Amino acid sequence: MRITYNAPFVLSYTFLAIGIMLLNNFTGGRLMADFFTLPPVFNFRDPFDYFRLLSHALGHANWGHLASNFAYILLIGPILEEKYGSKNLFVMSLITALVTGILNIFFFPTALLGASGIVFMMILLGSFTNVKSGYIPLTFILILALYLGQEVLAAFETNNISEFAHIVGGVCGSIFGFVQNSRLAK
Questions:
Q1: Angle at CA of residue 125, ends 59 and 153, nearest 5°
Q2: Closest by alpha carbon to 97, among 5, 16, 178?
Q3: CA 144 to CA 15: how far, in whole Å?
Q4: Structure confidence at residue 179 (pLDDT)
Q5: Which of 10, 35, 9 is nearest to 24 (CA)?
Q6: For residues 69 and 96, is the Cβ–Cβ distance under 8 A?
Q7: Which of 31, 141, 142, 159 is deepest in the core (most CB within 10 A)?
């Protein structure tokens, strides 16, 4: 038996995030703060802030944060990558990171860090993997109610978690699921 690089986007994304975390340890946390955390106030004159609109999805607060996000990404991602293709999943992830970043800047006075928006995008998108054209999967409705319902309730708690990023990621995954499956049905 041989080991195979079965999900190029998911595995590359995982190894890149791990590499960034390792490098961050050698910089005393400066790498994460300077390049992989979207600041609460966007500086339109700083080219790095444009980079951070996407790069925040590669950064993580600590190893536990990274492990919890990538446990889901490694579980769900390969299935999605097989169904939608590496390039499509990459584009969906970029769009989710960008939308999450932009909306965070406009609506919240907090920094943004982590892949949770992409995790929730994948969770909701995953409920569309075996759907037929013209049907709404019951699994989608239940995941929407359980995951996003929980996030809406948690949004009223004081914590360091961006439930908003989770909700936006879930909305992106839902939209991608409907759009991608209507394309595949044609």
A1: 70
A2: 16
A3: 29
A4: 86
A5: 35
A6: no
A7: 31
Packing angle, helices 63-84 and 8-26, rounded to 10: 160
Beta bridge partners of 38: 112
Question: pLDDT (tens digit, 9 = 90+) per residue, 60-101?
Answer: 999 999 999 999 999 999 999 999 999 999 999 999 999 999
* pLDDT cut 90: percent of the chain above it: 62
pTM of the model: 0.88
Which residues contact residue 178 at a Cβ distance below 8 angstroms, ignoring those fewer than 6 apart? 128
**Looking at the predicted structure, is the pLDDT value of residue 50 above 60?**
yes
The span from the CA of 89 to the CA of 122, in Å, is 9
Torsion angle (degrees, nearest 10) of CA 158, 58, 140, 84: 170
For the segment 51-62, what is each residue's pLDDT rounded down to a tens digit?
999 999 999 999
Sketch out the chain's domains with CATH numbers.
8-185 (1.20.1540.10)
User: What single-letter DSSP state applies at residue 180?
Assistant: H
